[in-house]
Write a structure and sequence with these properties.
The complex is a heterodimer.
Chain A: H1 6-16, H2 25-87, H3 93-99, H4 111-128, E1 142-143, H5 165-172, E2 182-189, E3 194-200, H6 202-207, E4 251-266, H7 271-278, E5 282-295, E6 300-337, E7 341-382, E8 385-407, E9 412-418, E10 422-436, E11 441-454, E12 465-480
Antiparallel strand pairs in A: 1-3, 2-3, 4-5, 4-12, 5-6, 6-7, 7-8, 8-9, 8-10, 10-11, 11-12
Chain B: H1 3-11, H2 15-36, H3 40-57, H4 67-85, H5 107-110, H6 113-122, H7 125-136, H8 141-148, H9 152-177
Helix pairs in contact in B: 1-2, 2-3, 2-4, 3-4, 7-9, 8-9
The chains are: A alpha+beta, B mainly alpha.
């Protein structure tokens, strides 16, 4: 009697044996898979939310800044009055005497506005902590950094600015003289800043006609050391770049619709690749999305965004494939038998050869994906036209795949469909031309190229695909200053 | 459900097909994991990771071999990856010298699967991994050496020792049962 080898006996025993895992195991597998997918899907949501919040904050900040430019003096002055009230315990008697504005308790300040203003003022005070203000003996309400803004000019301002010290402040605080809540002012040349101080009249405070706005941070006045008399600041042309002037770079938000001409090919180094590529054709796809770009220098800007891409890949044509064919040749001969006479002899000969077999294919694979481009632009312009050369890396998040794959052996195709998620990488290049139609809006016309790989083996295809997209984007650019 | 439909359903993320595939193979694959793991909890971790890989990659199954073979290979690879991350100690154990050749060769057939699995689990780690991979999974010594990061010769010697160790344990168990 022969025995199975020891290893075989053990293996047979164990391969037949089953141990059931815990009942909750399957559920935990599903949960773990679902939990692992979430970060992937949330990536797009987080990106969208971050973009929206960034734009909102930017727009809000921009609006606040503009509002500040028009009514800042009133607001800031009043805020300081509120601060004075809070700071009373630490104020010196001299401060109260000089300003003669002690009745701040009459101010009717809306609570919400006051809180906001107080917080802002407190922040600025903290920032200023350490600076010596004792020379003035006054409460500082405003620093004169923004002397360069033409929009702040007083309507009646003219050459008289140079002669009258108060008019200098009119340039700094753009508010109508009749509404200006200042009745006293003083100046102080600090170590590195030019300071202007204002008090507020009771009438104005009582009237409560001005609004409260957030304070601008203090800015250095560049020529503080060079000017013998700081009042000469008034002579400095507002447009001269020698003054410290905050330059705010715009933010561009582009909405794009992109028809695409797609050429797809098999991406695997397999025998099947050649046959698939033989029938690779061109077809149309479409994309639409949003792009946010931000200048980093005068010429360069960075951008990112999110696009939805309904990607189609067409394969159409005839595949010629050599196949081994076995044929049986029948050969009939006759021999002359001396006894039986003529006899028929049939011989069979098996012949194996190769013949070309042709199969027609016509199928289309489609992939629904979200694309996140991250790239950089080189910008230039001419009159109302802006141009940009854009280069970007692409992260493709494929959310649904469907189509057919070539089945060479059966001379037909096999369907595949999957909602499995997977990621692919690629790159893109485009040339943008934008025509300004209003200060904030531009029309965009942007031809471009994209190349990326789709790992469609993960979705049930039998080859991965590489996609070459020729695009022509049209869209609208909104500028957030 | 036909195997073909089962695979197609799993590719489409059909929950019922995934359940069916799990039911079909979970029991056998649990034994695979138990052979490599140090305890049941570790085995269940391996099983979980293995099935996640199976569901993630079932589209890559070429349908050339059997589905069970493919599932088993993934599970074994998952288990090997897991044990590779641990520090495996390969050591020799002096054992009694009962000669298995002299005993009734049907002793293995008479033993229950549970007992055999228990004996394998009691083997030292190095013995267990090499024995599992060579005797049951059918890896070559070179593959085992590459997988576990040891010399091919070590794999051979560990296997010889493991086999002898297991045979002796079987004989001991047989004696106890008698």
């Amino acid at each position: 009697m022969t025995h199975k080898p020891f290893e075989k006996q053990i293996a047979d025993k164990l391969n037949r044996y089953e141990v059931q895992p815990g009942e909750e195991m399957l559920q935990s597998i599903f949960e773990k898979r679902a939990a692992r997918r979430k970060p992937f899907m949330n990536l797009a949501k987080v990106f969208l939310a971050a973009s929206v919040v960034t734009v909102a904050i930017y727009a809000l900040y921009t609006n606040n800044d503009k509002h500040n430019n028009t009514v800042a003096s009133a607001g800031e002055t009043t805020v300081k009055q509120a601060d004075m009230q809070q700071d009373k315990p630490v104020s010196t008697p001299q401060e109260e005497t000089v300003f003669n504005t002690g009745k701040t308790e009459n101010v009717q300040i809306p609570a919400a506005v006051k809180n906001k203003a107080d917080k802002k003022a407190t922040r600025i005070q903290r920032r200023l902590a350490g600076k010596d203000h004792s020379k003035t003996g006054q409460v500082r309400v405003r620093e004169t950094g923004r002397t360069d803004d033409r929009r702040h000019k007083h309507p009646e301002a003219g050459s008289a600015y140079a002669d009258n010290g108060d008019d200098i402040y009119n340039r700094y605080f753009n508010i109508d003289a009749s509404r200006r809540p200042m009745i006293a002012s003083s100046r102080h040349k600090g170590n590195s800043h030019l300071y202007v101080y204002h008090a507020v009249s009771e009438e104005v405070l009582d009237a409560n006609t001005f609004s409260f706005m957030s304070l601008n941070p203090l800015r250095k006045f560049k020529y503080a050391y060079e000017l013998q008399d700081y009042e000469k600041a008034a002579h400095i042309d507002a447009g001269r770049p020698t003054l410290s002037r905050p330059v705010r770079k715009p933010l561009f938000i582009d909405l794009l619709y992109t028809p695409v001409l797609t050429s797809a090919r098999a991406a695997d180094n397999s025998n099947l690749e050649n046959y698939v590529n033989a029938i690779a054709g061109n077809t149309y796809s479409a994309q639409f999305g949003i792009r946010v770009s931000k200048p980093v220098t005068s010429r360069l800007s960075v951008f990112s965004g999110l696009a939805y891409n309904d990607q189609a890949c067409l394969y159409k044509g005839i595949v010629t494939r050599p196949e081994e064919v076995t044929t049986i040749n029948q050969v009939i001969t006759y021999i002359n038998d001396p006894v039986n006479g003529s006899m028929k002899v049939t011989t069979y000969d098996t012949v194996t050869g190769m013949v070309d077999k042709q199969t027609g294919y016509n199928y289309r694979n489609s992939y629904k994906m979200f694309q996140i481009p991250v790239g950089m632009s080189y910008n230039f312009g001419y009159k109302k036209f802006n141009f940009a050369l854009n280069g970007s890396a692409l992260v493709n998040m494929i959310s649904r795949s469907a189509g057919q794959s070539m089945d060479l052996n059966n001379h037909n195709t096999r369907e595949f469909s999957s909602s499995g998620k997977y990621v692919g990488l690629g790159g893109g290049f485009s040339f943008m031309a934008a025509l300004q139609v209003s200060p904030r809006f531009r029309f965009i016309f942007e031809p471009g190229l994209q190349y990326f790989k789709i790992n469609s083996l993960k979705a049930g295809n039998n080859v991965n695909e590489k996609v070459f997209n020729k695009q022509l984007s049209i869209g609208l650019r909104y500028t957030v200053f | 459900m036909k195997e073909e439909d089962l695979i197609t359903g799993c590719i489409k993320e059909d929950r019922n097909c995934q359940k069916e595939l799990y039911k079909r193979f979970a029991g056998k694959m649990m034994v695979v994991c138990l052979r490599y793991a140090n305890n049941r909890m570790e085995a269940e971790d391996m099983l979980q990771d293995g099935f996640i890989k199976i569901f993630d990659n079932i589209a890559k199954f070429k349908r050339e071999g059997s589905l069970e073979g493919w599932v088993r290979r993934i599970m074994v690879n998952t288990a090997i990856n897991k044990i590779r991350s641990n520090k495996v100690r390969f050591e020799g154990i002096d054992d009694d010298h009962d000669d298995y050749q002299d005993h009734d060769r049907n002793v293995v057939d008479r033993m229950s699967e549970q007992d055999i699995l228990g004996l394998i689990n009691k083997m030292p780690q190095g013995y267990r991994y090499v024995f599992n991979m060579y005797a049951i999974e059918g890896f070559s010594h070179k593959e085992i050496a590459d997988s576990l990061g040891i010399e091919e010769a070590s794999s051979r010697s560990q296997y010889a020792k493991a086999k002898k160790y297991l045979q002796n344990q079987i004989i001991k168990l047989e004696k106890i049962n008698l």
